[in-house]
């Protein structure tokens, strides 16, 4: 964030990009949300009454604003997640794990392994910011440093978002109000616009569209997951997203992952789905509760993904054909 650029940017864009600036403008009674002038342009047109009311000079306010920008830059560099490491612990037999795991922002990593091998345990260790205090004795590092409650506190409870198969709502509220509540709790100045975007994205991800006034308790499993993914991507600011098996969730998996990765997050996903596995940048193989090896998706696998995608699309078309009550008559319908 360059102060020189911020000083010349329309105020309404500044607060959309970084809502925390709203506080600064608010304390000087400046309505930034509607202001298309830049800070410098605005200062140029202010009269004596403006400065008297605020008990400061143009020079003082500009200095304060630059200090505020620098403060945000310093906080940003502290709270920017670049990578996460899971240092090897032990498997279920208490033998040392064969490898550690390194995750980077903008990358998708899958966790693969047979049922019961320990995929969810690995996600739980990260969610827990394990420090050799779980059965696996793994240690989680964030940006190379031991993660603890203070690390989580730096993000105000927004460090990690989790999306699982068994997500149910118990809230008696419609989709729009639910999202609005979340957006407002994150102080997003463009909450209404963001809520609209989340609903439209969720409807793109889910096979069965829903309305903004649908009660969240009425959403199907797939619709809930689609809503959660769109919410995590757009409103939630967590830089680390853990996903436990979305393969049967009734969402457009590829779109969902692209959406999350475009927002520059670390995405780690336990899955049995070969499409998701090949869509990822790499995968960690779990055996007997231990990390066995990390495999980078190679070019052959990436090419094979295309073949698999064509098969998957045929399967999807077939599912859609039968689930709306069609029958095969001539054999040419599909
Ligand atoms: N290294 C370990 N040490 C001790 N217990 C472990 C270890 N890894 C996994 N476990 C335990 O093994 C059990 C099964 O693990 P988990 O539920 O993570 O498997 P999974 O691969 O997610 O299974 P599924 O594919 O069925 O969802 C859990 O009780 C988990 O706590």
From TrEMBL:
* Keywords assigned: ATP-binding, Lipoprotein, Nucleotide-binding, Transport
Annotated GO molecular function terms are:
ATP binding; ATP hydrolysis activity
Mind telling me which Pfam families this protein's record contains?
Answer: ABC_tran
Task: Note the InterPro entries from the entry.
Answer: AAA+_ATPase (IPR003593), ABC_transporter-like_ATP-bd (IPR003439), ABC_transporter-like_CS (IPR017871), P-loop_NTPase (IPR027417)
Where does the record place the ABC transporter domain?
Answer: 81-313
Q: Coiled-coil regions in this chain?
A: none
SUPFAM superfamilies, per the entry: P-loop containing nucleoside triphosphate hydrolases
| Top-level lineage group | Bacteria
Indicate the family of this protein: Belongs to the ABC transporter superfamily.
Could you identify this protein by its name? Lipoprotein-releasing system ATP-binding protein LolD
State the organism named in the record.
Saccharicrinis fermentans DSM 9555 = JCM 21142
